[in-house]
Amino acid sequence: MHSSLVHMTLAHNILSGSLPLEVGKLMHLVVFDVSYNNFSGEIPTTLVDCSNLEYLHMQSNSFHGTISRNLASLQIIKELDLSSNNFTGKIPRDLEKLQFLRFLNLSFNDLEGEIPTTGIFGNASQISLIGNKKLCGGIPELDFPSCPIIKGKNEGSIRLLLYSPQYYHLPF
């Protein structure tokens, strides 16, 4: 299936089920908006094959799973809205590398861990992460709590081996 479809908006319907893997065959897709539906399941792995994608709006559905680091393959993406779903896990650091990304909304999911600080994450006016109570860190303007310092098992102890000079035959 080859398609020259560039704009697909299915927003504000009562569509349900999971998105088919075939969505990745829409190679020329620039805008993909399935927001405000009842979609569930994970983001299709084939979505990253839509290399012309600039606007991806999937907010207000019931998508779940982790946010794939493969989304960073969408190198010219400008807007990414995955808010108000059921995503879990950490924010993929690879999203920091998306140099054309101007709007990122991951709010109201169940994300956890440290918020990246470079790329789009360095500009609080371009991202929204509210409603993710297990996130920490990030730039101060985001106003998230600091991440806890995780102490290592052997913290505070140094293994030191001392050797007596009588065991060495130094050449001088």
Automatic annotation (TrEMBL):
Superkingdom of this protein's organism: Eukaryota
Membrane topology: Single-pass membrane protein
Keywords: Glycoprotein, Leucine-rich repeat, Membrane, Repeat, Transmembrane, Transmembrane helix
Domain Disease resistance R13L4/SHOC-2-like LRR: 17-111
UniProt cross-references to InterPro entries, sorted A to Z: LRR_dom_sf, LRR_R13L4/SHOC2-like, Plant_receptor-like_S/T_kinase
Pfam (any one): LRR_14
Cellular component, GO annotation: membrane
SUPFAM superfamilies for this protein: L domain-like (SSF52058)
Compartment(s): Membrane
Database matches in PANTHER family: LEUCINE-RICH REPEAT RECEPTOR-LIKE PROTEIN KINASE FAMILY PROTEIN-RELATED (PTHR27008:SF592), OS04G0122200 PROTEIN (PTHR27008)
Family assignment from sequence similarity: Belongs to the RLP family.
Name of the protein in its database record: Disease resistance R13L4/SHOC-2-like LRR domain-containing protein
Organism of derivation: Cinchona calisaya
Upper lineage: Eukaryota, Viridiplantae, Streptophyta, Embryophyta, Tracheophyta
